[in-house]
What does this fold into?
Amino acid sequence: MPNRPLKLISWNVNGLRAVLRKEAFIPFVKKHQPDILCLQETKAKQGQAEIDLPEYEEIWNSAEKAGYAGTAIFTKLKPLSITYDIPDADPTLFEDRFGQPLREGRIITMEFEDFFLVTVYTPNAKRDLARLKFRHTIWDPAFLSYMKELEKKKPVVFCGDLNVAHKEIDLARPKDNRKNAGFTDEEREGADKLVEAGFIDTFRHFYPDTTDAYTWWSNFGGARARNVGWRIDYFFVSSKLKKRLTSASIHPTVMGSDHCPVEITLTY
It folds into this structure.
């Protein structure tokens, strides 16, 4: 029976080596002591950054392209199994325009006794929306299908930078961004389908009407200081985990990246 709190934190660090140089990463981890820390946009391979956190097992899924994308998980809990990317996905779905496989290190799945934990760094549609079609017709459906397949076995927790503000409440200037990457109808439809499939947006579960709660800010125009931001980093959980969900929070004062960490606590 679950009887203790399990603290899970997700953070798009926008370059793990950069956030380490800013001396923001290790102090944050030591202060908050997550049981599991999920990272996105690591932009590094294991061993390229010197990380002194011996109590954690490090699990990495790095992009082939140097200094690009990538995910990692630091965990105090030993997983039963680890899976990278979307297993058994049609490889032709994830090829570039030259027919080469897109190995971008965007997903890690850890299996525990009674749930799966997935961290994901969803592809950005790009400023000119060049990757919107891929995102809408290939990535989002494939990711949702994978979450549903996992859920057939046991409940799922997935977290990360989903690169979409789901509702107007989730960004400071919705009217100005209706056709911009991160707030297109197509990307928001992908988020709709996650909710329709029964996955719970944990922050909105606790704070359905809270405004000005963001996780990413542009580096331009003093956006962070003025809190002109977007909520694009999430924890979703299967509805079966709803009773075990005890809190959800955002850490907007944590610096080091243009994103801030997000957190949930479950009973375990």
Residues 132-151 form the longest helix (20 residues). The chain has five helices and 14 strands. The mean pLDDT is 95. The chain has one domain: 5-267.
